[in-house]
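Why this split exists: single-chain examples teach little about how molecules sit against one another. For that reason, every record in the complexes split bundles all components of an assembly together and asks for one structure covering all of them. Below is a record exactly as it appears in the raw files.
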Amino acid sequence: MLKLYGFAASNYFNMVKLALLEKQLPFESVPFHGCQNPDVLVVSARGKVPVLQTDQGFISETDVILRYIEETQPGKPLLPTDPFARAQVWTLAKEIELYIELPARICYVEVFFGGRATPDALKAKARRDLVKGFAALAQRGQFSPYVAGESFTLADLYFLYSVDLAWVVGKRLFDLDFLADMPGARALLERLGQNPNVQTVATDKALEIPAFLARVQSGIQ
Ligand SMILES: N[C@@H](CCC(=O)N[C@@H](CS)C(=O)NCC(=O)O)C(=O)O
């Protein structure tokens, strides 16, 4: 059986978990936190979450894991079969990851963990990058009703578990509402919130957040 290493407060872990749930695949969750401890680095060379354990060994990096699941497992496809349409989905997913999730992540310690303030230069760069990242999403996203069109795809995983956090960063740090002019994106977040698997992931996350915050705060004090 597939084993998914990670923790329920991790947005990347939750992307893979939701893919497995949507495909109705059996899997075991293995509690695992990213860091530089040697025993963690045996599983994930960069000490990151999530990791998928297969019969052949470990796979790291969310996009690589999602691709592996798509190529090897049964269940609802999360990518179109047409190569061009498939490329559009991956472009959306990568643009959300690189230009929305990663710039927002620079500010997570300050915004979500009650930790040190993000240095001004980094904050300014995060703001510039987020403005451009959301503009790209507004231009490329279909929201009809899903990010890439009529079907739920991998792009929706990145959307759901990146845009929510980046939106909070925008509101709290920059007094900007990145979704103000994106009614389709707001409607999609609402629609996805009604999905029972999304609700399961959210419940698991809420249960784990106190322990996760305590863990992060003990590390940053
Ligand atoms: N590029 C990685 C990013 C994963 C990532 O940043 N995971 C976070 C948890 S949400 C993590 O493991 N952080 C630990 C660390 O950076 O030391 C992926 O796509 O899987």
